[in-house]
Amino acid sequence: MSNFNYVYSLSEENYIKAIYHLSNHGQESVNTNAIAIEMNTTPASVSDMIRKLSKKKVVDYQKYRGVHISEKGKEIALKIIRKHRLWEVFLVEKLNFHWDEVHDIAEQLEHIKSPLLISKLDEFLGFPKHDPHGDPIPDENGVFSTVKKEPLCNIEAGQSCKVITVNDSSSAFLKYLDKVGISIGTTLRIDDHNEFDGSVDITINQNKSTTVSPAAAQNILVTPL
Amino acid sequence: MSNFNYVYSLSEENYIKAIYHLSNHGQESVNTNAIAIEMNTTPASVSDMIRKLSKKKVVDYQKYRGVHISEKGKEIALKIIRKHRLWEVFLVEKLNFHWDEVHDIAEQLEHIKSPLLISKLDEFLGFPKHDPHGDPIPDENGVFSTVKKEPLCNIEAGQSCKVITVNDSSSAFLKYLDKVGISIGTTLRIDDHNEFDGSVDITINQNKSTTVSPAAAQNILVTPL
DNA sequence: AAAAATTTTTAGACAAAACTAAAAATGAGA
DNA sequence: TCTCATTTTTAGTTTTGTCTAAAAATTTTT
Ligand SMILES: [Mn+2]
Ligand SMILES: [Mn+2]
Ligand SMILES: [Mn+2]
Ligand SMILES: [Mn+2]
């Protein structure tokens, strides 16, 4: 295996991560424009990079037919995601960052190349299974736990559920959750769905009743209790 | 001040660090070839980069006359060195790396951009003043302690001294020091200088007598007791 | 002070990754 | 099936950082 240890550029790594992300763990194929939007670049640049990644067998690609991430591509993506999430845990647990401050720093740290560093960091953190936003951390073989989860808006009235993760790690959304009093692990009871605007009435931790917007209800992922 | 927050590229940062290093903390001017050797590149590339850094007022430069790092350049260099050394402390103290394994990883981590990350890391580590190789860690204003230190080979016979730092952080040299039983803080007594090959007879921590080569005696920096 | 050796700069290319503008392919609607 | 809007690719540049080869300046030697 000649390029077992090939090192991908910063740019390549970011594209691979974006494609993996947009494909839902590699199930679906991804089109050029979607990648361009995700990466904040132009479709022309995406076309160029796709040809390059295809030559390196990181994606399967036929002109005009979109890309599908390969097994090799999945492995690379999962390694980057593992690093990203471990660093996020470090920043929150050890350096006392707030969960809405860590994403951009982890975006840089995820590209540090040293397998030994990551295995030592993993051990130092006590082999965490989830990052501060509730996302699962793949192990060194890319295996991670998948808990069934769905958006809050899909849960029927009367049902109780637990917050597993969030669909949006933006500072604005996380700060909003803080204000409302929702975090990973919080128990919510769905009281009512308001037909007219899609907002949802909920009770937080058996005591505080409130209403969340449809946008929030879409981004809070829960598992029924 | 327009470019107060200008972000230097990875390449620019590495050149700035190399120039600072070769100039002994900004005292001396540095010639093109020396930079090329330090950076493992060609004099032509160095010429190009010097012109660029000079335009950005990071160095003072006149054709054929070598470069002198500016105050601005010094500040940038010291920030990178601060990050490098703090990360080295983290790797050794928290992740249990050995002192000969950390340099290359710190070489990557030193380029992570986040002032808040560094101040939190500094606090997490207990505001260390020295890195694992004995080098001083500049504070956020670039101030660092300078202990008088000289190579072991300069100490006269009969004198005792303490190991302050090492001039060479290569794995080969550090592993050699481990084998001989010398580390930062070790007390050495100089027993004799062997005229014919420059080797030095020493006694380590008042008990073990041995002889070190002239190369080693050059790279072990000590302060007389 | 001239010649020789060394150092440094310039000229010209190249690769990676981006962009704009234009061309080509695709797919949906009529 | 034809038209037309949308998507995707190609063509041609640009920027950054590198390289080799050649020219120019400086320093050392004689
Ligand atoms: Mn990234
Ligand atoms: Mn996360
Ligand atoms: Mn570096
Ligand atoms: Mn060090």
Automatic annotation (TrEMBL), chains A, B:
Name of this protein: Transcriptional regulator MntR
Function: In the presence of manganese, represses expression of mntH and mntS. Up-regulates expression of mntP.
SUPFAM superfamilies named in the record: Iron-dependent repressor protein, dimerization domain, Winged helix' DNA-binding domain
Keywords, alphabetical: Activator, Cytoplasm, DNA-binding, Manganese, Repressor, Transcription, Transcription regulation
Lineage: superkingdom: Bacteria
Family that this chain belongs to: Belongs to the DtxR/MntR family.
SMART domains, per the entry: FeoA, HTH_DTXR
